[in-house]
Amino acid sequence: MLDKFANYLKERLAITDEQAMQAVSCLNIKKYKKGQKVLNAGDLRSDAFFVNSGLLRCFSIDEKGKEHIIQFAPENWMLTERDSSVFNMPSAFYIDAIEDTEVVVIKKDFFPGIKNIVPEILELNILMLHNSIRFMQKRINMLLSASAEERYLNFINLYPNLTLRVPQWMIASYLGITPESLSRVRKDLANKHFR
Amino acid sequence: MLDKFANYLKERLAITDEQAMQAVSCLNIKKYKKGQKVLNAGDLRSDAFFVNSGLLRCFSIDEKGKEHIIQFAPENWMLTERDSSVFNMPSAFYIDAIEDTEVVVIKKDFFPGIKNIVPEILELNILMLHNSIRFMQKRINMLLSASAEERYLNFINLYPNLTLRVPQWMIASYLGITPESLSRVRKDLANKHFR
DNA sequence: CGAGCGCTTGATTGAGTTCAAAAATCGTGG
DNA sequence: CCACGATTTTTGAACTCAATCAAGCGCTCG
Fold first, then answer.
1. Distance CA A147, CA A177 (A)
2. 3-class DSSP state for residue B59?
3. C1’ C17 / CA B97, Å
4. pTM score, two decimals?
5. pLDDT band, residue A23 (cuts 50/70/90)
6. Which single residue of A62, A103, A171, B2 has CA 20 to 30 Å from B194?
7. Which CATH class is domain B3-145?
C-alpha cells in the first residue's frame, strides 16, 4: 500500500511512475488500532508519518491532565512531531490514532536521501512546510480573536469531513473550549436555524 | 549592510566568505521608520524579509478594528507573509515597523536561484521552516491551555529582550488578552514577589 | 505647554468554566 | 441480536476569569 504515497508525490511533482515507485520503495507501512498510541511525549523518535487511511491526532496533556489537540491528520496528510524527528529532542507532544489507521513511516533521511532520484522533492517539501505555517498562523489568529461560536463555525467550514468523524469533545479540545461549551454553541446554532 | 545576512548564512552553513558574499550580492536593503507600514492586508507582494536591525510585527485587524499580533521579528529573524510571497494570494496580514528597522529584501526566487552557488541552502531553509512550525505549535498549545498569567510568564521567558522593547498593549495583543488584563497580571506578579 | 497616547485602577458585566447529574449513544460479550 | 456498562453529549446552576466601560495619571513629542 505504498501506492497512495507514490500517487501523492506524482500529483505534486512532474515525475514518472518509475521515479515515484523508486522513491517510495524504501519506505515501510505501519498499522495502528483505534485508540493506540503512536508516540509518547518524551519519546525520541525520528519518523514522520504519511496517513494512508484513518485519522491521527497530535496533542499535549497539561498539569491538570487536560488534553489539548494541536493537529488532526486524516488520510493524505503528513504528521510530524518536530522536536523528536527534526531536532533530536524528547517529543513535546503525544500522537495516537482516532480511527484504525495505516501510515507510511518516513524516516529522517528520506527527503535528503531521494533528492538524487527526485531532486524537485526538496522544493515540494519546502512548499508543504510553508503551507503548514500558513494554516497555523490562521489558527493562531483564530485563537487570538474568535469567540467559541466563531471558532466552531470556522472549523466546520475548514474540515467539514472531520466534523462527522471526530468526537465532539475532541473538537472542543482543538478549539480551546470545554465540551460543555461546544454542546451549548451547537444548541444555539441549531436554534438560530429554526427561525 | 548585507554583511549581517551573509554572516547569518555563514554561521549556519559550511561555506566560504566568497560564497556567502556572492549569495547575498543580488539582494537589496530597505529601511522603514518606526510606525511605517511594510505590507498591507490584501497586498500582493512576493518578498520575504531578513531583519538586520530594529523590529517588525505581523498582525491582523478584526471586524471590530482590534489588532492581533501573529509574530514579532527582531534583528536576525526572517519574516514572511506566506499567502502573498509563497502562494501569490492577497496578504492575510499586515506588517509594520515597531522601531526604525533595516531589512534585507529577499525576493521569491532567491532560494531557488542560489542553490547553484550554495546547494545546502535548501536544506537550511527546510530546517528553519521546521523550527518555525515547532515554535508555532508551542504557541498554539499555550493559547489552548494557559491562563493570562501563564501566557505572560512564558512570553518573558521566551523573549526577555522583547519584553523591554515592545509596548505593553502589543504584548497583550500577542498573548490574546486585553491591555487592562495584562496590567493587572503584572500588578499581581509584582505583589507576589514582595512577600 | 498641551494634546494624545499608554498604562493603571475601579466597577460592572459577561462568556465560558466548573461541577453535577441525567439522557443518549456506542461497543462488546453473551 | 440484544443487553448492559462505559463513554459521550446534554442540561442546569453557580461561579470565575477576563472583557468592557470609564476615569485619572504621567509621559512624550510636536
1. 10
2. strand
3. 38
4. 0.95
5. confident
6. A62
7. mainly beta
